[in-house]
Amino acid sequence: MLDHLEIFSNGKYEIVLHRVLVNSLKSRISVASLHSLPFNRIIRPSPKLISETNPSLYKDTNFAAFLEYLKSCDSTNKSFLETRKLT
């Protein structure tokens, strides 16, 4: 999950929204790739990227928290990543 990559990198690698442009002259094929982490595996910013001058930007999280977010009404108001930000 890309949100988890941004958390692990402490914001160094920012996620971007996927956008597809339609081309009426060419056919397009999409391939879905589904993957996830174990429910209780803790995702946190890498300790190598945290220091006094570069503090952690995100709360620790896990895949179960992401699934709870999807079930909540918060998913219509803000992104999962915004719910994990400390600042």
Provide an overview of this structure.
With 87 residues, the protein is mostly helical. The protein has one domain (1-17, 40-87). It is 24% helix and 0% strand. It is globular and about 55 Å long. 8% of the residues are buried. GO terms for molecular function: metal ion binding; oxidoreductase activity. This is Isopenicillin N synthase-like Fe(2+) 2OG dioxygenase domain-containing protein. Residues 3-34 form the Isopenicillin N synthase-like Fe(2+) 2OG dioxygenase domain. Keywords: Iron, Metal-binding, Oxidoreductase.
Provide tags for this entry.
mainly alpha
Radius of gyration: 16 Å
DSSP strand content: under 5%
Outline type:
globular
Topology pattern, helix = H, strand = E: HHH
- How many discrete structural domains? 1
Count of DSSP H/I helices: 3
Mean pLDDT: 84
End-to-end distance: 22 Å
Largest sheet: none
- Poorly predicted ranges: none
Oligomer: single chain
Q: What's the structural blueprint in terms of helices and strands?
A:
Elements: H1 2-8, H2 63-71, H3 80-84
Keywords: Iron, Metal-binding, Oxidoreductase
Protein name: Isopenicillin N synthase-like Fe(2+) 2OG dioxygenase domain-containing protein
InterPro entries: IPNS-like_FE2OG_OXY (IPR044861), IPNS-like_sf (IPR027443), Plant_2OG-oxidoreductases (IPR050295)
Summarize it.
The protein is built from 3 helices and no strands.
